[in-house]
Amino acid sequence: MKKGVICILIFLGCSVHVYAGGLYIREFGQPSQGTAGAGANLLAEDASLAFQNPAGVFRLEGDSEWMVTGIILDSSIKFDPDDRNTVVGNDGGDAGDTQFGGAVFYTRKLNEQWGAAFALNSVAGSALEYDEGFVGRYTGKQAEVITISLSPSVAYKINEELSVSIGVNAVYGELELKAAIPPFIGPAITERDGLAKIDNGDDYDITGRASILWQAAENWRLALIYVGESKLNFNSDLELTLPGPLSGVTADNIGTDVKVVFPQGLAASALYDVNDRWSVMARLGWEEWSRLQSVPVTTSQTGSAIPIEWDDVWSLAAGLRYDNNGPWSWYSGIAYDSDAGKPQTRVAILPTDQQWRLAGGVSYNWSEKYTIGSAITYIDLGSAKSNVGSPGGVYAGDFSTNRLIVWGFNLNWR
To answer: Burial letters for 224-245: b for 16+ Cβ neighbours within 10 Å, e otherwise?
Structure first.
């Protein structure tokens, strides 16, 4: 039994890593979503800067501003096994789903030199569920994560051109995962599979953040933002349904700790006002996903550190903003994120490699007090080639369809 639990921990550890090791989502329905993130730390024209760059609070028109946003996230994820695949099963159908999320942002100028900002982001997303008998079921068949981030900050204006901010990110997460367990003896077919389920997993952590906004010249604006590393230790319940001859035998309420690192990140941005209508912007980002070399997964009886060997992620975004010198503003952008993983460790519950984003958006000044807007982003998650060995066989192939569409909407008032 102990040997079986160790094998199961290995399967679940890989699944937990790859799900949490995906790239950070930057879409919350804020106006800068329309620039594919290129203008996220620079535009400083609404309360969403409470999360993106609180140092910009002094550029806002109102002494205090609020923004509420919402997103609808639609995913389509279809796997195509290739000739290297040896697991008996099917292609899993479309594992995508439709999820919802949103955010609340608040900013306030306390006086001429001090400001404050507050952001609450909630994303119930990245839910995946493959059909019964999926060939990748031993690396994960279902996953769902809910995260909430609370980010208060203070800002200080050094002079008319330069301001800075410091704050914290308090992150709370919940985790649920399911993976099939192959029989230890005999053919690995769906009818003889067991099931490992992790649920009721939750934890929180607090880390620091800092940002700078500099009006370097009349037409030039520069920004730098840093977010520290978070570590979540999901204290979870593990339920096992044993495979093979013991199929149907269940052990539940096994206390399990799953430790996941969300790495630090740094981003530098630049914006140039071509004239009073057009602005161009760019963003270079770095996330230290190489910190996630392994994922410890433990119970009271045993434990294992799962080797992962991920790489750092680099991102580059470019965007445009057009203001018609009236109530309308238009946004567009494109972004690229490098691949964090490798085919040998890429499992089914987060099928991403390099990513491309195409985005557009619009804002309308309804009145002096209210601004409304919308943005849409198409995210190509890549072919995500996999070649993962397990006791149940080799899970190999790529994804013929692998995309997200994020539609966001926002309301800002001062």
So the answer is: bbebbebebbbebebbbbbbbe
